[in-house]
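Researcher: Let's do a round of design. I'm pasting the structure tokens now; please hold your answer until I've finished.
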């Protein structure tokens, strides 16, 4: 079975690794040396892509790329954990980058660092955040950045038919990029009507649904949609029982699994106070 990393982030970055590391670090002198494994003993991170990079100023270092379909409240902790794991394994300075593909719910604030203080000790991890919806589509064609071509429809100014057509032409002009048409079609469907996407692509959307790209992202989308639905129901129950819910409670629920949210729903019904529920949530 093909792993998600083999058909996703790793393959995209491999299209033009030098251009990618220069873009995420904002340093034109940086070059990519190799893509490294992201398995850390008992942990395997398929959404992370580690690139060993080099610059004359900084020498060898790691660029940790986390491509996230949608940002969650747990991302700062994850960025801290996997940055440390990567640095421990390869003994190199690490530059972590979080690339968010689609906007999160309006209730969730994206942050670019993890901070915790406990018993007088502090843990801090900064990381760069790139929100694709804030990136100008013209950058992809100008630099060029072939790794971002499939995402053009969701970039700033990329939702126009003419811009999507330009991205499609660029993909079809390079045999190495042909297979990314289905991913372009998937993101085009976020901003254009399905019949229009079919017309632009000149093939039936059934082709898209058979693509491993579509299956990978669709499964993530279904899981995330299910998680958000259970989360909304849980918040609704809490509000009906206890009134207004603190923001930190909603933020904590954002990153919980469907199974955990369902268990918390049972607790929300059973407890006699919001404080009791909060104690269960943060235990």
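Researcher: That's everything. Go ahead.
Model: Designed sequence:
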């Amino acid at each position: 079975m093909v792993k998600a990393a083999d058909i996703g982030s790793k393959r995209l970055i491999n299209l033009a690794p030098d251009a990618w590391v220069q873009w995420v670090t904002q340093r034109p002198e940086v070059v990519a040396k190799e893509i490294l494994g992201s398995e850390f003993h008992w942990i395997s991170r398929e959404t992370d892509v580690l690139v060993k990079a080099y610059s004359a100023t900084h020498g060898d270092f790691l660029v940790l790329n986390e491509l996230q379909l949608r940002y969650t409240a747990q991302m700062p902790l994850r960025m801290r954990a996997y940055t440390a794991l990567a640095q421990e394994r390869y003994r190199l300075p690490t530059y972590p980058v979080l690339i968010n593909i689609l906007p999160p719910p309006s209730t969730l604030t994206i942050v670019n660092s993890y901070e915790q203080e406990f018993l007088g000790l502090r843990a801090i991890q900064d990381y760069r955040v790139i929100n694709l919806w804030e990136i100008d589509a013209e950058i992809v064609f100008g630099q060029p950045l072939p790794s971002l071509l499939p995402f053009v429809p969701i970039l700033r100014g990329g939702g126009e038919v003419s811009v999507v057509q330009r991205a499609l032409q660029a993909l079809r002009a390079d045999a190495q990029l042909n297979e990314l048409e289905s991913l372009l079609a998937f993101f085009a469907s976020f901003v254009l009507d399905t019949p229009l996407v079919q017309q632009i692509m000149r093939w039936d959307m059934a082709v898209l649904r058979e693509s491993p790209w579509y299956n990978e992202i669709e499964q993530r989308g279904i899981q995330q949609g299910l998680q958000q639905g259970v989360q909304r129901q849980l918040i609704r129950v809490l509000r009906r029982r206890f009134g207004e819910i603190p923001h930190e409670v909603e933020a904590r629920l954002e990153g919980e699994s469907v199974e955990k949210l369902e268990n918390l729903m049972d607790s929300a019904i059973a407890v006699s106070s919001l404080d009791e529920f909060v104690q269960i949530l943060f235990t």
